[in-house]
Amino acid sequence: MTRMAKPNITLVQGDITEQDVDAVVNAANSSLLGGGGVDGAIHRKGGPEILAECRVLRRSPEYGKGLPTGQAVATTAGWLPATWVIHTVGPVWSRSEDRSGLLASCYRESLRVADGLGARSVAFPAVSTGVYGWPLDDGARIALETVRQADTEVEEVRFVLFDDRSYAAFAS
């Protein structure tokens, strides 16, 4: 087995569906059947093969009720420049309940899946910071800390951030 090391972290402002990496992480919903935001963009640009594999996963005993929050699973990337899509379900932010462990788990589990695939470069969105309401600065802190602490064979983790505000939160 290859020696585990810390990945090189890069920040890019742009479109995650255009990243030429081994694996793109999808901020999916638990159904795995597409949605809005990053999830919708990945399904639209990746084409029907991604949805077809997600439907197969949903018919399996393991994912029949959907993908649990904080977990990750891979499919083909279809027409995307990447080889795989790693789907992870982020938590909805809550004022009354600390769900930061679930958010960190999204990043750790995605890297674990990437290691199992042999992926060396992975592009992440800012999981849960869109419609799921996670405060951007805190989401960036959790993402960066989790990836920095991860033992993984992934050599490059690229955070692909959609706008100036997101980029600034990860860069600070």
How would you describe what is shown here?
This protein is α/β, with parallel strands linked by helices and 172 residues long. The chain has one domain (8-171): Leucine Aminopeptidase, subunit E, domain 1, CATH 3.40.220. It contains five helices and six strands, in the order ββααββαβαβα. The chain has helices at residues 37-46, 48-59, 100-117, 136-149, 164-171, and strands spanning 8-13, 23-28, 72-76, 84-89, 121-124, 156-161. Strands 1-6-5-2-4-3 form a six-stranded mixed sheet, sandwiched between helices. Helix 3 (100-117) packs across helix 4 (136-149). The longest helix has 18 residues, at 100-117.
What's the topology here?
Layout: E1 8-13, E2 23-28, H1 37-46, H2 48-59, E3 72-76, E4 84-89, H3 100-117, E5 121-124, H4 136-149, E6 156-161, H5 164-171
Parallel strand pairs: 1-6, 2-4, 2-5, 5-6
Antiparallel strand pairs: 3-4
The main sheet comes to: 6 strands, mixed
Overall geometry = globular
Whole-number total of structural domains: 1
Rg = 15 Å
**Which structural category do the helix and sheet elements fall into?**
alpha/beta
- Largest beta sheet: what is the strand line-up? 1-6-5-2-4-3
User: Span from first to last CA?
Assistant: 35 Å
Assess the beta-strand content as a share of residues. 15-25%
CATH T-level fold name? Leucine Aminopeptidase, subunit E, domain 1
SSE succession? EEHHEEHEHEH
Let me know the number of strands.
6
Average of the residue pLDDT scores: 95
What's the architecture in CATH terms? 3-Layer(aba) Sandwich
- The CATH homologous superfamily name equals Leucine Aminopeptidase, subunit E, domain 1
Helix content: 25-40%
* Number of helices, counting only DSSP H or I runs of 4 residues or more: 5
The first-level CATH class is given as Alpha Beta
**Spans of 5+ residues with little confidence (pLDDT < 50)?**
none
Organism: Streptomyces daliensis
InterPro entries: Macro_dom, Macro_dom-like
Pfam families: Macro
Protein name: O-acetyl-ADP-ribose deacetylase
